[in-house]
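Lab manual, section 2.4: Encoding a predicted structure.

Procedure: take the sequence of the chain (436 residues), apply the prediction step described in section 2.3, and record the output as structure tokens. A sample record is shown.
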Amino acid sequence: MLLELAEDVKKEVSKLCDEYEIFISQSNSISLDSKMDNLNFAKDEISKGLGIRVIKDNKVGFAFTSDLNKITQTINQAIDNTKLTKSDENFAFSQPGKVKEINGLVDKKYDDLSLEEAIDYLKSVINTALDSGCEVTSSGFSASKYEDVILNSNGVSVSNKGTGYGVGLSVNVEDGEGVSTAYDSKSSRTFNIDGDKLAEDVCKLAKDSVGGKHIETANKDVILDYHAAVGLLSTFISAFSAENVQRGRSILQGKLNTEIVSPNLSIIDDNSLEGALGSSNTDGEGTVSCRTSLVEKGILKSFLYDIYTANKEGCESTANGYRGSFSGTPSVSPSNLIFDFKDSVEISDMANGILATSVLGAHTANPISGDFSVEVSNAFEISNGDIGSPIKKAMISGNIFELLKDCEKVNSEIKQYGSFIIPQILVHNLRVVGQE
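Recorded output:
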């Protein structure tokens, strides 16, 4: 149905402009949130809209609408908007390619999921936490199904479909002197998330964090658990954006084919990965999904490109032009970032150090230099290979680019959080600042 609509739009826009791109999307979603242990928000929503980009005299124009009775007005608005941009020969739309269907992106269970069933699911998560002796401060559940179609004047006609589910939980536990908190979330393409297990794990983490002790300021080995690693790596990965490189906002500018991280580490962006959160048949511009080696055994090999940034350098797009919705234009963004380590270490082999479950304030890190200073939460001392006493309060500070020059994989489960597919990561000689 969306493709038929796109064809109708094509008939209209082709009368007025030679170069165009039509993006139509439809999504169904269920969203639930609780304040404390009471459900206070529930929404079952359908969204549908059209975004049109045109190129005229090397100028790009964009317009969008959620009123599909206003197709002609939207086309004319996009054409008028070309007058607001500068002429640039690097503007272009995707070329046809061989699209390979990626498995594991659509869960048929979504069609049978009711709002009532979603509510029961989240209530079960909340009740499991309460039964574990924790106070629930917030929780949420989401489920969505989407479809989009991209059609352009170069002959591209592609579609993407997918589903997604997510659940998150935050709890408190009184520890006599204050409150111990913990949080975690899980996401999946399929409705296979064990919410009760998530609640049990979050409550255990909160309880294990009770009675934290002060630690002395020193340089230490630190295991970055998944949330902590993602928080810091988000700063690191922005340096791989070709847009940031071209604008002089990346420390990696001019460093292709040089060693930037440990030879033990390779980094791959793969939007063709089966069942992964960031996978799709094409990116938001219609470029066929592919696997891009960003770092090979420590050596920088590529950046992330959309069509515009690729044209500026005379190379090919890496299929990393993504858009948040029909109301926005594509921009460079990662898909599934695989951190592939050659060797691994065991926690049992560590003489001393700390385990940082998550960090607070990662958004304050300098995205260009990589410098950071953040508070660790749910942190624990590691002594003679055992995870021991909780740490009451501490900061960690350093530079993410320097830390990754000497990092190792901890022998642990590989998980996906957001774009990152990672194990627990051990970094060395990180400054840990004890606080009263």
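Check your result against the sample. The helical segments are 2-13, 71-81, 115-131, 195-208, 226-237, 242-246, 307-313, 400-403.
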